[in-house]
Structure formats: C-alpha cells, structure tokens
C-alpha cells in the first residue's frame, strides 16, 4: 500500500470541513480521507508534527564533542550534535546557500559540516565558517547564514526537539512525570539496542494501534499473558491495587505509582503531552520477557520487582514502557503519506555489560516480536481503510478510549485551521 493517487480536487477547505464533520460523529473510526489525502498529510507535517515535541535520541549517542546523529522526519533531516564547546544542538540539515543536505552519514564525529555542493563549511555549532569566493559579493555577512537552529530540551538524558521556534515550553509538562521516570536514571542508562521498523502505513494507523490494547488479546498472545493492560479495568482491579500497595516498598522509589494525565486534549499546550501510570503484570511476572523473569540488572534507583510496569508518554508521538530491569522507548515518525518509522530503543542500566549482565536477544525478544505482530495488523488495517468500501465503525468505549482521545485532538487541530 505504498501508492495512493492524488485527489486533484482536494483542498485545505475540504480537509477542514471533513475534520469538523468527523468531530460531530465522536467515538467512530475516522474517514479513509484522512489517510489518503495528500493535502491532509502536508498539513499534518506543518501544523502537527513540526509543532510537537519529539524524542530525537539520547545524550550517550553524542558523548564527545563533535559527535552527531541525524534524525529524519518526513522528508526532512535534523542534525543532533555536541558542538566543539560541549553544547548539545539541533540544526536543520540544509545548506544556507542553495539548500543541499550538508551531512549524509547517519552518525559520526565531525569538526565541521562541509556542504558537498559548493563547499560552504559550517562549525559544529552551525556557524558558517567558510563560503568560498563569497567575499567578492558586497555586503555578504557569513553570520547571516548559520545553519538554522531547532528548539531542543534535554530531559533525564533524552533529547527532545521541536521544529517550531515558537513552540510552548516542554520542561514543565515533563516535570510532572520526572519523579516516576527518575527511578530508572535514564541519564546514566545505556542503549542496549535500537531498531527502526519501517511500516507501510500512514503514521496515524501506527499510532492508533499503539494507543489501544483491544487488539492485544487477539494479536499479541505472548504479551497478553504478561500484561494486565489487555483486560478491562474492573477485571484486573485487584491485581493493580495489590501492585500499587506494594510498589513503593518493593522498588524503594517514593511516588513510583503516582499517575499523571496530561495527554492530548489534557495537555496544557499543543504538542507537549506528558503522562504516566503504573499497571500490573500478571502474578509472578517481573519483567517484559519471554518467561516474565528479569533480563537485565535493575535500572537506576530501583531496588526490586513489584510486578508493575511504568507507562509513559512524552510528547504526542513518544512513549515508554518501563520494567524494573529495562525500558523500551517507542516513537512514531511519518516518512511519507504511507510510510512510518516506528523506532524502538531498549535501555538498560548504564553499568550493565552485554554478554555478562544481559544478552540482546532475550532483552529484545518480547517487543521485537510484538512489533512485528503490530506491523502485520497495521498493514492489513492500511489495506482495508484505503478501500472505497470501508465504512468506519465504533470504538470500544474503554479499550479504545485513549485512541479516541488522540483522534479527537487530531481532528480539533485540523478543524481549527483557517483554509488558505
Ligand atoms: S548548496 Fe551548499 S554550498 Fe551550495
Ligand atoms: Fe500492538
């Protein structure tokens, strides 16, 4: 499902009208139009994705001055770099001369970024250092042509960026979950593995799938044996309550189970969601692994296993599922109207040694396989919703309530745009 024909009569007004009409039918899956419209996709990039706080990476990826990596969003590329003064920076990977990418390699160490086209050279802080022969141009000032900087926040070792220079603050929303997330000491954690799953589906289908666990029982047989999230809340209430009662004592972390709901429509500012809740694993399960036993040493300040897992959201497209012994970060990034990068990052304790304290296969088994199962159902979903015969059905009021929250937030964002 890589190719979708352009509707030549599509307009932004049509999109706004459709979003407004869809909002009048709450609790129903959205019209296929929103997955097929190129106008909608470009508008989403401009008004949703590039105005949201997005996880870019971890400070351990740029430990030394000059270290960098690229973060690709849509058709764009952003350089995340530690400059020669040790400052972390995010900059558009676009030459200020005629727009070539100044850096192609996905990661590395540089003393400068030299454009391959006409050779303009930029320092690791983005300042233009060399522009061959441009001195003959009267009034040319190199200081006017630095690489464009991107907003950036480093929170507990994780780097978040926002392409909107006017984006609202993200530090305050994150502070609402800092105690719960702080338990894992992610600042000093180690990335044991990171994988990008390129899924042939619109980004919303991938995100919608993550936001509901109605499909868990039917699609994730193994996951569903371990995590109570797959069941209706009243059925697993006693298991959750027992875990909440013992969580602080067994993990040694005050407030570890404190909930905070600031996602989508409850977020104080657009694109700056934060959320945490702790839910129970089934009896006897300690971690998210093949047999439910630990697969790595305890993270950060955690003193033991309470049979719980921390569920986090940081910005609209980034999530984390944190077991006492490892954390799994999940991020969704659109790459085209029908392609999405689902990025998974497995964090372990910074002192853990591969082959001694953990092995990658055991550590990644559950979420690698669960993600492949998701990829299968998401692509089937994509095929179905792109049919002219698809008529959207109702969301389950409980199992799909978070998905409904996202969709409502999304439609509101579109419907509020003035057609231009
Ligand atoms: S486009 Fe980069 S130097 Fe010309
Ligand atoms: Fe899933």
TrEMBL record:
Recorded coiled-coil stretches: none
Domain of life: Bacteria
Cofactor field: Fe cation
Gene3D superfamilies reported in the protein's UniProt record: Naphthalene 1,2-dioxygenase Alpha Subunit, Chain A, domain 1, Rieske [2Fe-2S] iron-sulphur domain
GO molecular function: 2 iron, 2 sulfur cluster binding; dioxygenase activity; iron ion binding
Residue ranges of domain Rieske in the record: 54-161
Keyword vocabulary terms for this entry: 2Fe-2S, Dioxygenase, Iron, Iron-sulfur, Metal-binding, NAD, Oxidoreductase
A Pfam family the protein falls into: Ring_hydroxyl_A
InterPro entries membership: ARHD_Rieske_2Fe_2S (IPR015881), Rieske_2Fe-2S (IPR017941), Rieske_2Fe-2S_sf (IPR036922), Ring_hydroxy_dOase_asu_C_dom (IPR015879), Rng_hydr_dOase-A (IPR001663)
PANTHER family documented for this protein: CHOLINE MONOOXYGENASE, CHLOROPLASTIC (PTHR43756)
Name under which the protein is recorded: Aromatic ring-hydroxylating dioxygenase subunit alpha
Species this chain originates from: SAR92 clade bacterium
């Amino acid at each position: 499902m890589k190719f979708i024909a352009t509707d030549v009569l599509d307009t932004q007004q049509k999109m706004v009208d459709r979003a407004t009409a869809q909002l009048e039918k709450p609790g129903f899956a959205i019209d296929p139009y929103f997955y097929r419209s190129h106008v909608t996709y470009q508008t989403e990039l401009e008004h949703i994705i590039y105005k949201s706080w997005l996880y870019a990476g971890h400070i351990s990826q740029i430990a030394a001055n000059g270290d960098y990596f690229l973060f690709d969003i849509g058709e764009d590329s952003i350089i995340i770099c530690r400059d020669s003064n040790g400052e972390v920076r995010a900059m558009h990977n676009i030459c200020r001369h005629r727009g070539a990418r100044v850096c192609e390699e996905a990661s590395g160490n540089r003393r400068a970024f030299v454009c391959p086209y006409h050779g303009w050279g930029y320092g690791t802080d983005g300042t233009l250092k060399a522009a061959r022969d441009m001195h003959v141009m009267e009034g040319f000032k190199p200081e006017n042509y630095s690489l464009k900087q991107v907003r950036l926040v480093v929170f507990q070792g994780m780097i978040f960026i926002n392409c909107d220079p006017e984006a609202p603050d993200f530090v305050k929303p994150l502070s609402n979950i800092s105690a719960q997330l702080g338990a894992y000491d992610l600042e000093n954690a180690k990335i044991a593995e990171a994988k990008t799953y390129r899924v042939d589906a619109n980004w919303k289908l991938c995100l919608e799938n993550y936001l509901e666990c109605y499909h868990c029982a039917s699609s994730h047989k193994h996951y569903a044996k371990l995590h109570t999230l797959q069941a209706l809340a009243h059925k697993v209430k006693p298991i959750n309550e027992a875990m909440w009662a013992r969580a602080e004592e067994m993990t040694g972390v005050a407030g570890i189970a404190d909930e905070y709901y600031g996602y989508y429509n409850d977020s104080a500012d657009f694109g700056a969601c934060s959320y945490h809740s702790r839910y129970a694993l089934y009896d006897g399960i300690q971690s998210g692994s093949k047999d439910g036993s630990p697969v790595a040493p305890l993270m950060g300040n955690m003193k033991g296993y309470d049979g719980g897992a921390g569920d986090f959201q940081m910005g609209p497209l980034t999530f984390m599922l944190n077991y006492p012994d490892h954390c799994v970060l999940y991020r969704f990034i659109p790459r085209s109207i029908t392609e999405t990068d689902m990025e998974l990052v497995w964090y372990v304790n910074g002192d853990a040694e591969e082959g001694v304290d953990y092995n990658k296969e055991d550590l990644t088994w559950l979420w690698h396989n669960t993600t492949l199962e998701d990829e299968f159902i998401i692509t089937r979903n994509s095929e179905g919703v792109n049919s002219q015969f698809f008529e959207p059905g109702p969301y389950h009021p409980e199992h799909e309530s978070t998905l409904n929250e996202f969709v409502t937030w999304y439609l509101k964002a579109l419907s509020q745009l003035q057609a231009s």
